[in-house]
Structure formats: C-alpha cells, structure tokens
UniProtKB/TrEMBL annotation:
Keywords: Membrane, Transmembrane, Transmembrane helix, Transport. The chain crosses the membrane at residues 7-33, 45-67, 79-97, 103-127, 139-158, 178-196, 236-256, 268-289, 298-316, 388-407. It is a multi-pass membrane protein. The lineage of its organism: Bacteria, Pseudomonadati, Chlorobiota, Chlorobiia, Chlorobiales. It is found in: Endomembrane system. It comes from Chlorobium phaeovibrioides. This is MFS transporter.
C-alpha cells in the first residue's frame, strides 16, 4: 500500500507540472507575452526566445551543483519542494503582468521555468526507488501518459477563460488562467510532499563551497568518462542539435500558429488537444517500432517526420494543413524522446548508468535547449518573418541527423570504450 501511494503521488506530480509546460511554455503565455505584453511587435519573438534560452542555460549550470548537494545532504524532497514553490509563485505573479511590462514578465518567467525544469532533476531521480528495474520503462511511460492527460485537463479547464482570445481585450481572463494554472500545479503536486520522506539527512548546510567544488569535479569526471565512448559522444552531440530544434518548435508553435496563420484561440486549444492525443499514440506505436528496428533507425524516422513538419508548416497554406502538420508533430514528439532515451541506454555502460544519465537528463538535456530559441527569435525579429525563423531550424535537424548516422548502434556492454 505504501509503495502504491508513492507511485500514485509520483505520477500525480507529472500530471501537475504539465499544466505549467502547456500553459506557460507552449500555449497561453507565449501568445500573451508576444501579443499583449510586447504589443505584437517583432522584437517579442527575440525576447521570448532569449527568455527560454536564459532559463534553460541557468538550469544547466546549477543542476549538477544542486544534484550533488541533494545527494550529499539527503534532502532531495526539500530541493524539489523549493523549486516547485518557485515555479508556482512566479507563475501566479505573472497574472499581474500587463502591456509594456516585458522586463517584469521575463524575470518572472525565467524564475518560473527554472523552478519547473530544475524540479524535474529531483523528481526524475525518484523513479528507481519506487519500482523494480524491470518496470522502470513502464512506469516512466505511465508518467508521460499522466503528463499528457494533465495537459488535456488544463486545456479543458482553461478553455472558457481563453475562448475570448489571448489579447488585451481579454487580458483579465488570460491573467486569471495563469493564476489557476499555478493553483492546479500546487494542488496536484502536493501529495508527493506528503507521502515521500527524506532519508539519511545530514546535519549542516545543504549548499556550501564544498558542494559546489564537488559537483564541478563530478561533471568534469563524467565528461572525461563519456569521451572514452566515441559512439556515445557522437550521439550526445547529435542529440544536442536535434533536441534543440524540437524544443524550439514546441516553444514557438502557438506564436507561429496565431501570428503567421491567424489561428483563433479556440482553434489553438483544439489544435493542442489533438497534438497531445497524437503524442500519446506516437509514444505507444514507436515504442513497438523501436523494439523491432532499434532506437537509431527510429530516431532517424522521427527526425525525417520533424523535417517534414517544418517544411509543411513553411510551404502549406491554410489552417487545415497546419492541423495535419501538428498531428504529425505530435506523433514524433513523444517518440523522439522515448527513442533517444533508449539509444542512450544502449550506448551507456552498466557501470556508469546513473552518472551518464544524470548528465544526459540534467546538464546536457537543459543546455540543448539554449541555441534554438535564441536563433529563432533573432531570425524572426531581424527578418520580420517567422517562416524564415522556422526554416533556420532545419539546419539543426539536418546536422543532428548527419551526426547520428555516424553513431554505431551497439550495446556499450559488449562494445568496449573504443568501439
């Protein structure tokens, strides 16, 4: 019973925090920031891209320090709680952001996204403790499913407030949706803090100079180890490029749909609900595909789909076409993540699983979301065309795919460091 409570509360946290992801990173807040706070000006794209990049870079920098401190002090739940409260509070305060308050909104969003992304570092680390080795993949999949369900739920709940449009005329309702999203996050995240306990807590400060130096040594040690596995190094470099492009598409999808294709808010809500639904289907279907043909080939297939998505969004006209493009994106969204994780597992030697995956999910995973949003924002602002900015992402996808073709998809268990 106790284990079931832990599993359920862990899954609820994924259900909870996706409300922030879909409302504040993907859908409502990007539109509000560009169209209301920045008055629809082109520089809004550059500021939004910079906000995403800065927040992810900061998380990438502090993740190893905080991770080491959490491991050493035994106070992982306190770290997760602190980051969650930071995200919830900053999101709630964004409900006061109005026209012309770009600096205020950027500062709060950066803090909110640091809280969200930083919390995932500690949340993910609980997975191995609440299930057996044989069930990790299954429970991780359930977590993704709960996340997609949370996204659908928050979209349905916020629909009455947002159907009037994400504009200055409906600003009060949009601001209310931010506050309610923060409450949704807090409410469904609460069980994990009531059920989980910190074990083996050490006396003393949870952050210290020693912790910082220790974490820096660990990162250097990990990078040195990874360099001993050439195929793993090549894969991580490929992942850096294509994952950057994927996260950028997600971050700018709502802005592109409304500003370039003139989607109404109601159409966008339906659009993102369809994307979430096809993401669930894609994760399941490509899970079987990965088992049949291997993760490398699966990633190549999903990257081809992503390239088709970007080209379709640029070339095709009309909202109906974009709905189809969005559903394709949904199919490849979850499957890209799942296949990449499988590829990482295949290339990682058993003796370094925790060390390498911490680097993959934490420092490297966050850092790979820095360049794309910045490039998209700068190209869009400079060229005055979001289609030109979207086209720039093709470079990231192509470079990632080319680098991936140089990776030999063999198990690190039998391949050795130099093979």
């Amino acid at each position: 019973m106790t284990l079931k409570r832990h599993v359920f509360s862990w899954l609820l946290f994924d259900f909870a925090n996706t409300s922030f992801s879909v409302m504040m990173v993907t859908f409502a807040f990007p539109l509000y920031f560009k169209n209301v706070i920045c008055g629809g000006e082109a520089y809004g794209d550059a500021l939004w891209g910079a906000s995403i990049s800065v927040s992810m870079l900061l998380v990438a920098v502090v993740s190893p320090v905080l991770g080491a401190s959490a491991d050493y002090s035994g106070r992982r739940k306190r770290f997760l709680f602190s980051f969650t409260i930071l995200s919830v509070a900053a999101t709630a305060l964004l409900s006061f952001a109005g026209p012309g308050m770009a600096v205020y909104a950027i500062l709060l969003f950066v803090l909110a996204n640091i809280g969200f992304e930083g919390g995932l570092v500690f949340y993910d680390s609980y997975l191995k403790e609440i299930t057996s080795e044989k069930s990790i993949g299954r429970l991780s999949g359930y977590g993704f499913a709960m996340g997609y369900l949370g996204a659908l739920s928050i979209l349905l709940l916020m629909r009455p407030l947002l159907e009037g449009g994400i504009s200055a005329l409906n600003a009060s309702n949009v601001q209310m949706s931010f506050l309610l999203s923060a409450l949704f996050f807090a409410l469904f995240a609460a069980p994990i803090f009531l059920v989980f306990r910190d074990e083996n807590k050490r006396v003393g400060s949870i952050l210290s100079v020693e912790a910082v130096l220790r974490s820096l040594r660990e990162v250097r040690h990990t990078v040195t180890h990874i360099m001993n596995y050439p195929d793993l190094s090549r894969f991580l470099l490929a992942y850096f490029f294509y994952n950057d492009a994927i996260l950028t598409v997600i971050a700018f999808s709502s802005i592109y749909a409304q500003n370039t294709l003139h989607f109404t808010t109601s159409e966008l809500i339906v659009f993102f609900m369809l994307v979430q639904t096809t993401a669930i289907a894609g994760s399941v279907i490509f899970g079987f595909v990965t088992d049949k043909i291997g993760p490398k080939r699966t990633i190549v297939i999903t990257l081809c789909i992503w390239i088709a998505v970007v080209l379709g969004a640029i070339v095709l006209e009309g909202k109906e076409s974009f709905f189809m493009v969005g559903m394709l994106a949904g199919m490849s969204m979850g499957s890209s993540q799942a296949a990449s994780r499988s590829m990482m597992a295949r290339l990682t030697p058993p003796s370094h699983v925790t060390e390498f995956f911490g680097f993959y999910d934490g420092t490297f995973g966050k850092a790979s979301a820095v360049a794309g949003p910045l490039v998209f924002g700068l190209v869009s602002s400079g060229a005055g065309s979001q289609k030109a900015a979207l086209a720039s992402l093709l470079v990231f996808f192509v470079v990632g795919m080319v680098l991936l073709t140089r990776v030999r998809s063999v198990s690190a268990l039998g391949s050795g460091a130099g093979k």
